[in-house]
Amino acid sequence: MTTNGGRRPVFCTIVPPHVLDRLAQAEDPALSGPARRTLQRDAYERTQRRLTTVLGAPAVAVSEAAEAGTPHRTVYDAQHRTGLPGRKVRGEGDTPGRDATVNRAYAGLGATFELLLTAYGRDSVDGAGLPLNATVHYGEDYNNAFWNGEQMVFGDGDGEIFLDFTIAVDVIGHELAHGVTQHTANLTYFGQPGALNESMSDVFGSLIKQYTLGQSAADADWLIGAGLLAPRVTGEALRSMKAPGTAYDDDVLGKDPQPATMDDYVRTGRDNGGVHINSGIPNHAFYLAATALGGNAWEKAGQVWYDVLTGGELKEDASFAEFATLTVGAARARFGGGDELDAVAKAWEQVGVDTA
Hints:
356 residues; alpha+beta; 6-stranded mixed β-sheet; 9% strand; two-stranded antiparallel sheet; single chain; disordered N terminus; globular
């Protein structure tokens, strides 16, 4: 068994560092200022996460009032400061208030909980009813959202490049899925296992979006973060699982650098070895498998990916090929030697990852 109970959580953001680095170099201070502050804040939070990992974090207890198989959500308001968690503004079962950001965060936490429970029988991100806490209105013009190993945090964006980070439910699902990975395979956050870590979050973030909207694999847009980019930006989203490398092409942001196949694999020391870049390859493999199978993507392709993530055989330092081989085995174990196995094996072949 490779799980470690989440004893080594990492700090994971939805906006890649290379995007913020590019923005930080902009001549317009309205663009560079928020990006630089966001990078500084991310560096601080990343350091705090490492210290917490070394020193240990207090256990998060499930409320006595929370029943197994029911969500236990709490949303806090940082009031544009950076202390966590902030002021409590909505608890489980409370009626919606006037703050749309709070309501979206609450709904997104619920949507993630519902998919995990309904599709996979998983009680919250840890499988044991972990309370889902989120802080909104974090910092000033903060251009990111993150999972810090214990809770979700959302910035409001700068209004120039990024809008409110609660707008996209797949962003909420993406970050909470880091919690699922943390409590299961705990994939190392560097190189290929780090890219798999990011890809798992994109996969389940997309599935949560599709489940919430009632979309089939054919109907889905397969975009991550659609709706986050401000009107001035030339682009659709942060990433595209359908066509990695095409999510944006903007004078300020640059061009989406994600590869779709191993032919264009990016070797870099930045971004923890390109975890947000090379994740495009396993992302595309999942898209190919899910659309080949049709229907609801969470039912077959999603089930195979979930089986591998939680099955205990996935190593923390797994390569793309090792992960791909396990998905082929999981497809065979769950569905036999039919269409599901063929779709998964062919998807990895199309992106250039060996499953022998």
